[in-house]
Amino acid sequence: MKNNALVKETPSFDVEAVRLQFPVLSRSVRGKPLSYLDNAASSQRPASVIAAVDDYERQHHANIHRGVHTLSQEATALYEDARDRLARFINARSRSEIIFVRGTTEGINLVAQSFARPNLKAGDEVLITHLEHHSNIVPWQMVCEQTGARLIVAPIDARGVVQLEAVTALMTERTKIFACAHVSNALGTVLPVRRLIAAARSRGITTLLDGAQAVAHLPVDVQELGCDFYAFSSHKMFGPTGAGVLYGREQLLERMPPWQGGGEMILSVTFEKSTYNGLPNKFEAGTPNISGGVGLGAAVDFILSLDREAVHAHESGLLDYATRTLSAIPGLAIVGTAPDKASLVSFTVEGIHPHDLGTILDEDGVAVRTGHHCAMPVMDFFKVPATARASFALYNTFEEIDRLAAGIERARKIFG
Amino acid sequence: MELNDLYRDVILDHNRRPRNFGGLEPADVSAEGFNPMCGDRLTLRLQMADDKIGEIRFEGQGCAISTASASLMTEAVKGKTPEQALLLFERVHAMLTQEAADADEDLGKLAALSGVKEYPARVKCASLCWHTLASALQSRDAAAVPAVSTE
């Protein structure tokens, strides 16, 4: 396998300098340099995020929003400052529209239970697509069961593309909610979200985007997208786990009842009645993941510190190179060949089960995800039980793709 | 740990040419095994003869470890009583999960799976078929209970 790293690197983007900011990337695995190609599952943290969390834990921790003492005020300021940065990051109209949650999954469940459940009735429809992650399927199935509404699934084509017309054909007067991924985690497909959202809005359908796979790769402007809800996770955008954001249009959030009761979300409590707090606290019952929020704020700073066009060019280069390199391997089939893809490649290799491939690649320090990627309907559609998936982040290199390809060749020899 | 200790020739051979693979009609007992984490599926069918496992076949899809383990298991339990088969399961399970150096002694070809213990994420691949067998044999016992009570 020849190494084309030097000639193919995007000149305006210094990937080595970025790599130095990620401590874990310099470690070895099984005696080999780590090639971390599992970023769609979870990305790594730069030193700035680790330091922000560390500084919070060492210097500023206290419970937020209720103490008059210095630490509580500092903790509150750090946490709320992170909210401000997230509002700017996705261009929300106001900080009230940024609800801190545990992650994308909790954000979608919040919308399903607090917005959809009171609004849906028997005969209504919730429209999703065939390529959704389980977390954008199951919460809707649950609310359909609770309300008598029906879950409608828009098809994908053989490349894993969601065609606008195929979705709009299913938007009827019964459709109350349209929810879809911004970027598919299993296939990499970037969905035509602007046009999908516009089509839904013109029919009065409330919209949610699952942005888990998008925020680390694409600029997200919720006002430009026009969606009503947008959910994403911290740990897929270089932040800590257990934190995330649900963006919601303020007028909708105002009308929605709280979905969990407890401290923080109330103004006053008597045994007869409680008065709920305003946004965003109404949806943030209990002491939140404060350090996670602080770390997420630092992750936003990290992303904004980079030239995002150069990052995008680098990631596109990785996708092109991986697609060409892997396609040249006999018996390898790429699953998901949409023209507009984020930087990930799902694939199968004839005669080698993805789990065996994953174990063999790990021996070479190459980390990929194998399995159904929490998208079993996608696997069923392509009639494969599982795939291997190499998903790239801005710190990955062409050389790591060469190592991936060499590992696949090694697996082919073992199973040859 | 070396890869060729996991993917020994016996494993690769049984993955390429699984023994006792396919359907079995009529089956006295059957069970399905499913590993939701990785999507491996396995159907096991047995014919009993004189309270021994007379015929046993499996079909489904899985990785090399899962397929080879099922293939080796069918060879190992044929002709054994359910009790003997379950005892063997215990010994295989000990080999897959424990560090005991002698756990694979006298296990014959099944000892080829001993490398799996160095790969904790893969233990469930090797043990799926055995859990399925245990379930099949237990369902046979459960069916036998009401049959006995009606007499």
Give your account of this protein's structure.
The complex is a heterodimer of chains A (416) and B (151). By secondary structure, chain A is of the alpha/beta class. Chain A folds into two domains: 5-42 and 307-414, Alpha-Beta Complex (Aspartate Aminotransferase, domain 1), CATH 3.90.1150.10; 50-304, Aspartate Aminotransferase, domain 2, CATH 3.40.640.10. Chain A contains 15 helices and 17 strands. Chain A has helices at 5-8, 15-20, 47-60, 70-89, 104-119, 138-147, 164-168, 193-202, 222-225, 250-255, 290-304, 308-327, 354-363, 376-381, 398-414, and strands at residues 28-29, 32-33, 35-36, 98-101, 125-129, 150-154, 175-181, 206-210, 229-233, 244-248, 266-269, 274-276, 332-335, 344-349, 366-367, 369-371, 387-391. In chain A, strands 4-10-9-8-7-5-6 form a seven-stranded mixed β-sheet, sandwiched between helices. In chain A, strands 13-14-17-16 form a four-stranded antiparallel β-sheet, covered by helices on one side. Chain A has a two-stranded antiparallel ribbon with strand order 1-2. In chain A, β8, α9 and β9 (229-233) form a beta-alpha-beta unit. The longest helix of chain A is centred in the first third of the chain and has 20 residues, at 70-89. The two termini of chain A are 18 Å apart. With 151 residues, chain B is of the alpha+beta class. Chain B has a single domain (3-140), classed as Sufe protein. Chain: A, CATH 3.90.1010. Chain B contains five helices and three strands. A three-stranded antiparallel β-sheet of chain B has the order 1-2-3, with helices on one face. In chain B, α3 (64-77) packs across α5 (123-149). Chain B is globular.
